[in-house]
Specification:
Rhomboid-like fold, mainly alpha, 11 helices, two-stranded antiparallel sheet, 2 domains, 280 residues
Length: 280
């Protein structure tokens, strides 16, 4: 199943046209190394998104369970929105971000890891629903490697902005302007996916895609200002980060081998941040 193909033909990982597995360039779209070093068939077997959506859902579920098991005595359960909430110490241990970890403890790498942690059963349930809904759409427009880059960059931008806001505005009397002392969740990256869809609509002239993504982002932003304990700065930073990264990657240009390399680097950096958080 995971054997490398060394001869014959495969489908180009960008345009889907038939190419030789050893061809250096796709003659149809110009992508370099269209056979992905002979692993193109294996990756396509994981789905159009190369298994990224399943990876996010599976990894988030595993880490959520790990934060509960690590400190079972600290699990909170009072109220619908805090039911089965891991302890703050457990979330900190696995890589929660915010002003306290980033500036108080110099754990700057947590801006990578926080997107993969969640604070309650409802928190992870609804975030994973959004990932399952939005990630395949972004993959269809940008391809799997660029989607990974956008998702990671949006999480970084969101938690960086939230951490700075928590440092400078943590004492604000209005709860939605305070920033975050400790913050987690995939919603920053999810807003980045919305930002990427908005940019694609503007770049490609699709008012339907841009309008739907913009409307959804506005609704979720408003919801964040109504509900307490919502990290609005992470949402804003995630949206801007996803939009900016989508603009830099340019969805109307074919994917490049560099995108795959950067996607793998994003996943490796995220894994390193989580492992580093636990070990430190």
């Amino acid at each position: 199943m995971f054997r490398r193909q060394r001869s014959g033909s495969v489908l180009c990982s960008s345009c889907g046209k038939l190419v030789g597995v050893r061809d250096p360039v796709c003659l149809n779209c110009g992508r370099r190394n269209p056979g992905l070093w002979g692993f193109g068939s294996v990756l396509r077997g994981l789905g159009r998104d190369f298994g990224f959506t399943s990876l996010v859902i599976g990894a988030c579920a595993f880490l959520y369970a790990a934060t509960l098991v690590t400190d079972p005595a600290g699990i909170r359960g009072g109220g619908l929105f805090s039911f089965l909430s891991p302890s703050t110490g457990s979330l900190f241990r696995f890589g929660a971000s915010g002003a306290i970890p980033v500036f108080g403890y110099a754990r700057w790498w947590t801006i990578f890891s926080a997107s993969w942690l969640h604070g309650s059963i409802l928190h992870i349930f609804f975030n994973m629903l959004w990932v399952r809904q939005l990630a395949p759409d972004v993959v269809e427009l940008y391809g799997a490697p660029r989607t990974v880059i956008i998702y990671t960059a949006a999480g970084i931008a969101g938690f960086a902005l939230s951490s700075f806001a928590g440092l400078f505005f943590g004492g604000m009397p209005i709860f939605f302007l305070r920033g975050a002392g400790i913050t987690i969740g995939a919603s920053a990256a999810i807003f980045g996916l919305l930002g990427a869809l908005v940019y694609y609509g503007r770049r490609g002239g699709s008012r339907h895609i841009s309008g739907q993504a913009t409307s959804l982002a506005v609704v979720l932003f408003v919801f964040g200002f109504i509900m307490p304990n919502i990290d609005n700065y992470a949402h804003l930073g995630g949206f801007l980060g996803g939009y900016a990264m989508a603009k830099w990657l340019d969805p109307l240009q074919p994917e490049k081998t560099d995108h795959m390399v950067w996607a793998l680097a994003c996943l490796a950096a995220t894994l390193a941040s989580i492992v580093g958080s636990v070990l430190s």
